[in-house]
Design brief:
- With 164 residues, the protein is α/β, with parallel strands linked by helices.
- It has helices at residues 5-15, 30-36, 53-56, 60-67, 83-96, 118-123, 138-146, and strands spanning 20-23, 43-46, 73-78, 128-132, 152-157.
- The chain has one domain: Rossmann fold (3-Layer(aba) Sandwich), CATH 3.40.50.
- The strands form two sheets. The chain has a three-stranded parallel sheet with strand order 3-5-4. Strands 1-2 form a two-stranded parallel sheet.
- It is globular and about 50 Å long.
């Protein structure tokens, strides 16, 4: 039986001596959260760096890592949209207003035509940026980033789920 990718990623992080994982539960990392409970040696720390928000909302996190040369690797699950906002609108806001079946164009929330290049953005801060488009490239690129001992960012392009 094939091992889920979340387990492959978590085991590789453990192999590289990672003890703490920072994230924002309830967003794009839910599958990872489902797997972390199987690895008690990993400690989950709440942070507000998620998805494309690492570049749009919380850019100061990159500046801090660069300024203090922190050996942190950001892993951005890049779905080329503000999926968290679309999810909130579709599953909470619209139903609260009695618009459960409403279809929305989500104006300004899709970056497919002009995707945000988080790896290039990190380079602007002096942080080594990597981009992963093919899942088979994740392990070698992540190993390279983790072995730097310096700030790095891995921009992982994931499936762009459609929310209607």
């Amino acid at each position: 039986m094939r091992k889920p990718s979340r387990h492959v990623l978590l085991e590789m992080l453990i192999e590289h001596g990672v003890e703490y994982i920072f994230g924002n539960p309830g967003t794009t990392e839910l599958p990872l959260m489902d797997g972390i409970q199987d690895y008690p040696q990993l400690k989950y720390m709440l942070a507000l760096q998620e998805n494309v928000a690492v570049a749009m909302y919380s850019i100061q996190g990159l500046w801090t890592a660069s300024q203090y040369d922190l050996p942190v690797t950001y892993i951005v699950c890049n779905n080329r949209s503000y999926r968290i906002l679309k999810h909130f609108l579709a599953n909470y806001y619209f139903p609260t207003l009695g618009l459960k079946n409403r279809k929305s164009a989500y104006t300004g929330m899709n970056f497919s035509e002009h995707p945000l290049d988080c790896a290039a953005l990190s380079e602007g801060f002096g942080i080594r940026g990597f981009r992963v488009d093919d899942p088979k490239d994740l392990k070698p690129i992540l190993e390279q980033a983790l072995n730097l001992g310096k700030p790095s960012l891995v921009d992982v392009h994931i499936h762009q789920e459609t929310i209607r």
